[in-house]
Amino acid sequence: MHTSYTELAHRISEGHRLTRDEALEILSADDEATFDIGHAASTLRHQHFGNTVKVNYLVNLKSGLCPEDCSYCSQRLGSAAEILKYSWIKPEEAVRQGSLGVVGGASRICMVASGKGPTDRDVDRVSRMIEGLKESNPDIEVCACLGILKDGQAQRLKQAGADAYNHNLNTSEDHYAEICSTHSFSERVATVNQAHDAGLQACSGLIVGMGESPEQLVDAVFSLVELDSESIPVNFLMPFEGTPLEGTWELTPLKCLRILSMVRFAAPDKEIRMAGGREMHLRSLQPTALLVVNSLFLGDYLTSEGQSAVDDLRMIQDSGFVVLGAEDRDLVAEHEAYLQAHQQDLSDADTGAEESTAPAQAVAPCGQVASCSKENGASGSVPLTIRRRGVGTSVAPNA
Ligand code: SF4
Q1: Residue 60 in contact with residue 299, Cβ under 8 Å?
Q2: What's the farthest any 2 CA atoms get from each other in the chain?
Q3: Mean pLDDT score across all residues of the chain
Q4: Which of 58, 63, 272, 368 is least surrounded, with the fewest CB atoms within 10 Å of its CB?
């Protein structure tokens, strides 16, 4: 058993690359050792990113209606999850929604659409959105996430001004067939490589808690390191009712912290993001996790709700961190004032979706729909709440 994680972090800071055995040892460590591991990982985080947190903001351009069968996904073929379903939102709505994330301190807007991959017409449509967003927010970074790319599409997105392309590996090659049968791990790898070849930054990460073994998790992380993914989102499975992984609760807050720490040891200088599911799986350890990761999504996810954006910003501030690019601003105060001043405009917005099939349900101002909430059966009390606000609805977004 490795007894000094601090020493391991020191060796990594001097060029040592985490070995598989070391990675497995971190994952299998006792709960009591976890804060020592997190502390050691935090020295690497501090070395490369100081006290900054990169804030990213998701805009779901097209929701549900996907022909693929990724078992973790609420938008999959045959999903009975009662998510919002809508086709492409209008370019001007995408720009408006993305700009709201900028107000919240986001330095990167992630434009995401469901589906196996885009047609050339889809790429043109998203290119217009990127150009519009860059025109109104010249300093913002844009990441596109449209699925598996065909030849030339990454270049087209780059020409439109995209900075990055997201395509997660999600899990290891030998676990991939367990979670998806309609496309392969190698197709995912090829898309990450296409993004790189076109000069886009690669954003590629994981979903943990899907039945993978520790060895498979390590394989997935090492694949991401090998692919030189500049940004690594770590998602914690949100087991939507109506999907094959419904009822799968494998994670605890301390286990999540060990996973994030292992990723930091493996990729010390990469942007590591605590992504979807952090609220229900890390729970009260979210601020502790900020010592290890340097990035998060503000507000809501694609089809589920996150904690309030103001709470995210307050968590960052209270933990002694600053939002990258907004180091001298009091974003909590600014954000609260903005929301107060614009509440009416935000609520009056058109949904912007070309064909919305969102359920016509009464929605409370907080966006909660009681019938879609689910208690964490494993050990927690943070509900999985289907998103009923923001893009695709007429309710103000959590931004
Ligand atoms: S992850 Fe993407 S490709 Fe897979 S089912 Fe969901 S939307 Fe479709």
Answers
A1: no
A2: 59
A3: 91
A4: 368
